[in-house]
Automatic annotation (TrEMBL):
Major localisation: membrane
PANTHER family assigned to the protein according to its UniProt record, in alphabetical order: T-CELL LEUKEMIA TRANSLOCATION-ALTERED GENE PROTEIN
Keywords per UniProt: Membrane, Transmembrane, Transmembrane helix
GO biological process: osteoclast fusion
Family as reported in the entry's similarity comment: Belongs to the TCTA family.
Gene Ontology CC annotation, any one: membrane
Protein name: T-cell leukemia translocation-altered gene protein homolog
Region (Disordered): 70-101
Biased composition (Basic and acidic residues): 91-101
Localization of this protein: Membrane
Residues that span the membrane, as ranges: 37-59
Length: 101
C-alpha cells in the first residue's frame, strides 16, 4: 500500500516552486541579454498562437470542408471494396506471396 503524502513532502514541493519562481522573477527584472532574447521569443510565440487561433476561427470551416469527403462508404466518397475484388481474397490463379532473401 502506498504511503500517504505527508506535509513535509508537500512543503518541499511548494518551497522548490517558490524558489524557482523567485529566481525567474529576479532574472526577468534583470537587464540581461538572454532575458531580452527570451522576452522576444516569448512574445513571438504568443503572437503566433493568437494569429493561428484567429485564422482557424475565420478559415477553419473552409479548410475542414475541403478535406472532409462527402458521401457514403468507409472514407466518405470511396467505396467499401473494389468492385472486381472480393475483400482480402486474391484471384484464383495467383500463387501466395512469400518472403525471399
Amino acid at each position: 500500500m502506498a504511503e500517504p503524502w505527508d506535509f513535509e513532502f508537500l512543503s518541499r514541493i511548494g518551497d522548490s516552486c517558490l524558489s524557482f519562481l523567485s529566481e525567474f522573477v529576479d532574472d526577468w527584472l534583470a537587464n540581461d541579454m538572454r532575458v531580452s532574447i527570451f522576452k522576444i521569443l516569448l512574445g513571438w510565440l504568443i503572437l503566433s498562437l493568437v494569429a493561428i487561433h484567429f485564422a482557424w476561427k475565420i478559415y477553419g470551416n473552409t479548410v475542414n470542408d475541403m478535406y472532409y469527403r462527402q458521401g457514403t462508404g468507409q472514407n466518405g466518397g470511396t467505396p467499401d471494396t473494389a468492385p472486381h475484388l472480393s475483400g482480402w481474397e486474391s484471384k484464383a490463379g495467383d500463387a501466395p506471396k512469400t518472403h525471399r532473401d
